[in-house]
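for the writeup, i need someone to sanity check this before i put it in the appendix. the sequnce is what the collaborator sent (i think, or maybe the updated version? ugh). structure was predicted straight from it, no edits. if anything looks off just tell me and ill rerun, i have time this weekend
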Amino acid sequence: MIQLFLCPSPELYGLYHRDGAAVLITDIFRASTTMITAMAHGAEAILPVATTEEAQKRGRELGCLIAAERNVRRCDFADLGNDPKEYTPERVGGRRIVLTTTNGTRSLRIAREAGAGYVLIGSMLNVSATLDLLERRGIGEVVVVAAGWQGHVSSEDCLYAGALGYELELSGRGKAMGDAARMMTDLWAAHCLTLEERIDYIRSCEHYERLCSAGHEGAVPYCMQLDSHPIVVGLEPNGDEWLRILD
């Protein structure tokens, strides 16, 4: 039986850390969606880094594609930004990518520094595949870390926990635990079961408005669709720092 917890901001992760739990980093708009897309389209591996300086340095040293975004926009020095549509099979197939984003890669660093071992990347694109892997590996506790925006809570990231909680309980494989995960599971069931409902709900949220103002409204339906890519991407507990597809 999988127990699901939601940490609504990476700044709070120290309060939610659970020894032995899997940690799901989610940044629906758009880092985790972009990472899943890149790997589904044939990228070899992704190295998440916290700063733009590290992205430039490591990318050049390793001969990788450099992907960098700050405040919804691609950095001038980067080969790629943080828009999933950039990560085509032709562009990323067989390549390694060094990636830094405003919120997603920062959240991963915070969780790792606080002791998270088994880290997965969570997106709407692979909810079912993620639950299948957790069950296969006998993971009993899962903490979703919602990346948010510069420390503030974002609805779309918390809703990801609702999607997981709903599917866990519907299938009898687990339960949403604690008030945060319970609220998001109930919200998902009431307002977000269809893509149309999810998009309608998210239109009133801050990060949706931020994407629209930067000209990225078209990314929203893609980011909010369920189970289009049946892969799981993450870091093995005793592995290196590269994100890869996990079996």
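Residues 2-50+104-235 form a domain with the putative 2-phosphosulfolactate phosphatase fold (CATH 3.90.1560.10). Residues 191 and 201 are 7 Å apart (CA to CA).
thx in advance!!
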